[in-house]
Amino acid sequence: MCVFLHGGNDSFNWLVPRDAARHAVYTTTRDNLALPLNTLRPLNQSGGDGQEYGLHPNCPGLEEMFNGLGGDTAKRRAAWISNVGTLIAPVTKAQYLAETMPLPRALFSTVTRSTSGRPPSRRG
Known about the structure:
With 124 residues, the protein is an alpha+beta fold. Helix content is 25%, strand content 6%.
């Protein structure tokens, strides 16, 4: 199953970094929306990017599906695929601001990106 949220998902308050350094950056960028570290539901991953993550405190079902039903890692039923979208190629903030990389049309338009059903096209 794939959950398509058709916009309106604040993913940075759903899947949150749990290590001290990245959580500090998260807290700075989220300001008053940041979730305290001690409220996050820990995800126990093996593999992946090797980083520590936690879920929003209101997601106990997703926590159990990811960590394994009843704590049994053989019964994991969820995975996360983060930072996916319709970019043509990876782009840094500096490249975006300098407009040195091709970007899809309507990059920040949720409605356009989610209803087009087409691969990204270059803007211009």
